User: Fold these one by one.
Assistant:
Number 1:
Amino acid sequence: MHFPIQYHEPLFRPPSEARSLIFQITLGCSWNKCSFCEMYTSKQFSARKEEDIFNEIEAFAPYASQIRRVFLADGDPLVLSNRRLMRILEKLNNTFPNLQRISTYASPINLAKKSNEELKDLFDAGLNLLYVGIESGDSKVLECIQKGETFESTIEGLNKSKAVGMNSSVMIINGVGGVELSKQHAINSAKVLNETQPKYASTLVLTTHKGLDHYKDRFLGNFEQLNQLQLFSELKLFMEGLELKETIFRSDHASNNLVLKGVLGKDKQLFLNQIQQAIDHPELANLRSDFTRGF
Ligand code: SF4
């Protein structure tokens, strides 16, 4: 089959969207400033023409019965007005009658800017899963990494979307604030998760794709990189602070030297034991010792 979409590269999607059909409804990221993120620095943000999006959706009409999941790209489609978003969601629903899930990346601030009614309309039209890179719950860290969010805006965006029924998959970056802010990063990131009780949460380790010096240049403050032991200690402090009722948790990104997969809160003590073991025996943790519960 000739694939009917010519994507505007680079194209990113979360790992769990590997089997989804992707439509780029915006290109790049309207914020595009985060110190650690190089995803869209090669792109100028723009909203794509509705006609082009609709043509791509229609190109998949012959396969409509097989399409269950759609992911909307690029970085932050929710920056679009609801009028535009609703037309796209309606087109998707009309074209793909078996659609079960529509998901997208979202920033808390774009969620917070929508009214409750607007979010409810999007949810009712099928947008039911958001991937939210909150990175940190600490306002100082968020300022240093130029995230454009705060502790409060993150909680507001996540809880507003949750209130209308949307699920969130949130991500925290281990080590993103450096040595100086490590403790407050761990403690306040746990607090944000406790306040928002997301459906999914994950951690990854800071990776400086363009080198440490480049990251330091974009970090608004003093950045000293955490060593492996400090990364594990930060993860432990974060885990100790979590009071989650039923969140599917994973730290299985390639950047993690310790793989944790399970459900919080019931696996909290098991995770803490795993992290302590990694602190005591880092040479074993480097083997990416796997603790899985089979999901
Ligand atoms: S908001 Fe997301 S996509 Fe945009 S620069 Fe920040 S991390 Fe990258």
Number 2:
Amino acid sequence: MKPAPFTHHAPTTVDEALALLAQLDNAKVLAGGQSLVPVLNMRLATPDHLVDINRLADLARIEVDADRVRVGAIVRHAALERDEAAHRALPLLRQGLGWVAHPAIRNRGTTVGSIAHADPSGEMPSILAITGGSVRVASTRGERVISADHFFVGPMESVLEHDELVLDVDFPLFPAGTVTGFDELARRSGDYALSGVAVAITPAADGTIAAARASFVSVTERPDVLDLTPQLAGLRPDQVGTDVLATVAEAARTHVDPVDDIHASADYRRHLSGTICRRVTSSLLAELANPSAPTAVPSAEKKVAS
Ligand SMILES: Cc1cc2nc3c(=O)[nH]c(=O)nc-3n(C[C@H](O)[C@H](O)[C@H](O)COP(=O)(O)OP(=O)(O)OC[C@H]3O[C@@H](n4cnc5c(N)ncnc54)[C@H](O)[C@@H]3O)c2cc1C
């Protein structure tokens, strides 16, 4: 199918884009188009105007500083995935981005577009959630910064108003020494996950576990965070046995709320979520106990956040 007719606008400054969004009725922002264009082609949305933000050079930056990675609205998934400074600061970005669709889609699709789209099957909304990140949005009425916790409302639903543009998102860095991992299962490589899990474990100065958290892909209504600290706090990584890992898996199974669809039953997705969460946690604990040992989950890249 072809999209319904629309008028294409190509502003070259943020102010121009915001003025267009304020003036035009039934307008949508166009970033990489990797989610929006299929929706238009299927006529699930029929906007009269597209405000194309791809010429807004100010929004093409990746900034890394002592406490966060800031990603501008037209930074492609692939650019963020390749960015060495962002990777060193927050390895979980690359760990998750490698699972986003195929390279061709990552070359065009933007990380901010994925977050604005608020699809709970997207990896990056989940990573924004587990880092406790935030979204900076602007309109002709001014700017506001919204925490991930408040930004995502439900499937494909955020608090973004029709005249608001996301300028950038901030991914805060984890405390030093935190290890992170991401793993997921899809029916085919590059497909949306049946279930995906990000885990972050932070050690205390004495080597015991201080905090642990997980976030999920495709199995919750909105990206949110499961606190695994009650299961793991105070334990030494090499003392965590199968009994404790079973409680981690059970916490994950209880937390998620998947639905049946043509790809998998809700029960299977729930089971998968527990299994992946346990495996990633176990692998990270092994890494904390012995950083030079080979990892137990070869498909998930795991690095120490500095
Ligand atoms: C075959 C296929 C497989 C895919 N698989 C995956 C996958 O496994 N995991 C995954 O996470 N994603 C997947 N995607 C989606 C991909 O990651 C998209 O790039 C991403 O979801 C949206 O980014 P975009 O830049 O393409 O946004 P667009 O498609 O341009 O926009 C998406 C939505 O966000 C809004 N929007 C975009 N940017 C802004 C902004 N700055 N301010 C306000 N609103 C904005 C648009 O108006 C639109 O409603 C897949 C896509 C395809 C086509």
